[in-house]
Request: fold
Amino acid sequence: METNHTSPRYGMVIDVDRCTGCGNCMVACAVENNVPPADPKATERTGTTWMRVSKLENGLPFPENRSVYLPVSCQQCDHHTPCVSVCPQNAVEYDTESGIVAQIPVRCFGCRYCVTACPYHARYYNWWDPVWPEGMEKTLNPDVSTRMRGVVEKCNFCHGRLQAARAKAAAEGRRTIADAEYVPACGESCPTHAIHFGNLSDPNSDVSMLSKDKRAFRLLEELGTEPKVYFLSEQDWVHAIVKNKISTELKGHGNG
Amino acid sequence: MQFVGGSALGLLFTPIPWKVLNDSAIWTQNWPWIPAPLTGEFTSFGTTCTLCQSACGMRARSVGKQPVSLSGIPGHPFNNGSLCTAGILAHHLRYHPSRLRQPIKFLPGTGYGTPLSSTTVVDEISRCLNGNRGPVVILDGRPGRTASALFGQLGEAHPAVRYIPMSAPAFDVLHTMSDAPLGPLGYDIDGARLLVNFGAPLFDAWGTPSRASKVMDTRASKTQTVIHVEALCSRSASRSDQWIAARPGSEALLALSLACVMIEEKLYSAAAARTIGDFGEFSDYIRTFSPEAVSGASGVRPETIRTTARAFASQSPALAIVGNDASYETCAAVMALNILAGTVGHTGGVARRNAIPDAAVFPSSGVRAVSLHDVPDHSICTLIIDESLSGCTLSDALLEKKLVPKDATIISLSPFVTSRPYCTQYVVPSTVMFETMSDVPGPIDAAVSSLAVSAAVLQAPDGMMDAVQFAQMLGRALGSTTASGTTEELVKQRVAAIHASKRGTVFAPSTGVSTALQQCASADELWSALAEGGCWMDDAARGDNAPAAMTLMNAFRAAQISLPQSHNVDQLFVVPFAETTIYNGTPVSPLLSKVSQESGLRLSLRQAYVNPATAMARSVANGETISLTTKNGSMTVQAKVDASVMPDVIFVSIAGSRESSVSAHSAHDVRLLCNVNENGSFSSTPVSLQKVTA
Amino acid sequence: MDKQLISRGTSRTPLPRFMLWILPWVAMLGIGLYAIFLCLSKGLNQTNMDNRFSFGLWIYLDLTVIALGAGAFFTGFLLYILKRKELKAVINSAVTIGFICYSGAVAVLAVDVGQPLRAWFTFWHPNVHSMLAEVTFCITCYLIVLIIEYIPVVLKNRRIKNVPSMLVFEFELHKLMVVLAAVGTFLSFFHQGSLGGLYGVLVGRPFAFRPALGIWPTTFFLFIISAAAVGPSFILLTTWLTSKISRKQLVKPEVLQDLGKISGSILIFYIILKTVDTIFWINSVHALGFSPAGFFRIQEFGTWILFLEIVVLGLVPAILLLSNRVRQNTTLLVLSATLACAGIVLNRYVMTIQTLALPTLPFDQFLSYSPSWQEVATFLAVIAYGMLVYSFSFRYLTLFPQEREIQSV
Reply:
């Protein structure tokens, strides 16, 4: 997966200390990407949430217990992208023009190998056909097609918005788009401005500078997949838990 | 044979097999029954969200007139580009599955409704109102709208009708403590240096959604400190500068204890004390609640109480705020703190707003508004409720207490099927956001009055009324005169009156800046700014606005706060838990399943937080079903083991539920299990817990 | 009619008794087909798989039956390529079992994917880097090979042989056998390996991930060798079982002993490699900053599982099978073969199920999964299908050519 550094590589930096865990990013994402409401039988493990806010706890008992929220979407791995190589029919593509790992649901036959391969659990299989209450299909976003059951989907940094921004720039005779012109729905909806988005290849961009901050970390960095989503936190325990993977993981048996 | 073979080979060079392959590929791209999005050009328009009173400016991206996504308007004085989770999904409400399509009549106890025609329901309501049965009360869950003015007119014109505007419960109590009317109130959070928050979800869509961001931005400059009091480390607690873990139900005691320290150590504002007529009596009353006395019941150390009281007195202006589901006692105690600190009517305190300049069609009487608490119990024969706006939830326990038993009638305007099993109920279907023009008063956490307008872009379904039309219908039924005209005409008259007053500033989304209203050339110009999602903000009330005379014991005699007897240490308590006010009791978009059912980020209905120690002591594992039994009934919930909640307290979600709906008797709502306070709020109730084995 | 179909010189149980025997299998197959219908018409929400446990019982089943079905290719390889003539006694049975295992696995795979109608996209837009594409290619091709290998067995049926053109066809096919065995072996090497690679390439699953030797992760080779090791053991077991159930001696004892010896010698080789691989894995996981012991911290998947797999179900049967004295005792021989097969069944379980149960992110929890009845019924349908095909083949076809000789003696 050669990365062309002259073209943009979009990335995200999420300030964990500012995230209140409200869930705006999750619903704004679902609105933007025509993700349907849950089937009555859906659970935390069968629902579709391209962006999912998870709670990270410091492990101490009440009242010392503290937590932060980590909004986790597709981490847009830049290198050895675990899902791209496993798909038997090229339904996952790494777009060298943007660095975005894109899922092509119409080519997917639902083997779920990529779901198994992704360590971030960022991929979602459609266990049900999508159903909207009568009339609500009128509120669907025309820029994104709906999916049927039996295929896998995931975050693509609101690729539809990138296309729209590119089209607009092209119509105005520009060859590049400014950072402000293209922001995914989650970033736009964040009430505390915890989600920064932009071009990591541009050393002067907001995300580029924040990603080099000493507060920055990435999830499962040591796997070497070079995720393009960074997190920021000033709290030492957050860094400690993220680095100290397995020992804190096996807290107990859970369904969630 | 050769012919067949040759044909087969030849066929491969024709487009036929490839076309068949391609077509089947296209067909398998999507089942024909999967809905496809609308097609058409994107447009966009600005409007104001009406889901709660925060009046967020929002921009809708739409296809034709149909909004397909909503986002906040950057630079808006209230929400500055932010929306809450429910607001982002506001355009789904029009298509909500429980949307009421035609009027419906429920008979008491049945839970089954009979559909009525639009004319029949008007006839029946008319007969009901003129039946000379007894007092009629109109409850307005969101005062300050054009419809509110019409409801007020009904109250003035008809001797049997009383209009009761519902403000925040804490402000209701503050009104009863003041000898003279205080006028509209709001919290000047922006101006406060210290904020002591008794459980309001400050960072979780309690006030304007930009509040969390504003507070975080001030953190760098250390200009504001937030202390949060709650029994669990909620989103708001964990983002505050300090979290005081207090037992649920002890908030009133804790606030009184802070007041006690302020009086003991003479930390109160002397000027404010002089305005309190019964300061001596109050001082005597409050001595019972010393930090040492309260510490046991609240679980807060005496030193913490003293330090907090000293901070509250020294870091002026300090403001104490309280959530909307707080008990009467808590509201009274918290407001007493503000009075003692002398911040009522001051910058950074409880702001006294100027009334909105009103149009000539709505003469304001200046009569002091009555609170629902002041209405005698079991006295209301007919109750009219405007529930056309989401987020205006009224405590059904309180309503039931105020209504004449068995024989009462409720007439409600609601977009959704709501039924109250204890009385006859007419539900008139109402329009929702985007279907009707509406004016929106300002948020609770703003210091000044304001007005914004929500636009009507979509055609309302047949037979739906908005609140103004509902008031006019009631007027006709009662034979009273109300202001006539369409909703838009009436709202425009209000806007014209504001323009004539030349007060305040106007925010125009097109420019993104606020300018003085005086620079606004015409009422039409103001109208067009408001109609595209702008807002008008009044000037701050000038000078010292401290109330002239207060009588605190009015409230405390009613509140009857006492120190609890020491309870069994192993006793469990159950508490109704609304993570954020906006989901409480109002239908929301089904897409909110993303944050609850599909991710567990927030509790769903019939889920409860349980501390790990509490769970372990009863061998309950995460995700298991538990049965809760109080003296009022029992129900089963799913346990979510979480170390951020207080041990021995079970926090049961009330998300998206009403405490009394059709299936009230199957106890799906924890509020039916809880003891009810005087003001209809629910107190923490002793409970026993059994693990349910499958 | 029934009598005329049964091979000359062999006796089979009376038809009513045979009917009674197949009845429960037919019922099981029926329930399974209903479950498959539910899964295909309503979608995979009928299963208990989810976005975290996205591979479940079925993938485990696929990996396991294909490993056990390896007897077909490996026996073919030994017989036709290495000319181990004594294996002719079981080759027909091995081919039948291979055919059952592979066709069953492919059928389950077709249910397991969300959009079976798009399965041909793998051939249309193949991703050559994907282990699953490799698996799909090889399994599809090998299934065709197996069908061609199975056809002569069917054609040798007493009645069909009477049709002259069929006899010619059978003869022509038979000449192909060596080629087919070679192709089959080649394909099998690849897909057994790619099935191992399936999990071995998962960079995001450090528990399963193995560094590459050449272009394939070590599990690629381990799977080939382990499949080759237990394939003969499974043939041994099925032959012994068939013999027990039909109460007939089907092959000479030396054949079973030979199979055991082959199995044992490859198994010992496999266990050595597996041990080396495990040691390397511990080091590489450690280098990544994970604690290898952390993966075994949960009671259900403690280090005992590693011990069970490598020693009790690996080293022990290998040593037993290599001992002459053990092999001469049928009970011990069968027991050792059972242990060897169990070891591979456990290995495939660890690779598929344990890998997914273990958390990867710091806020993940250990996950549990139990299949729904639809998954179990589909699983059992494959077993029922196998029993039926094998029962009919045994009754009407010549699965064990030595049977006639032994009976006539």
Summary: The longest helix of chain B spans residues 487-501. The two ends of chain B are 67 Å apart (CA to CA).
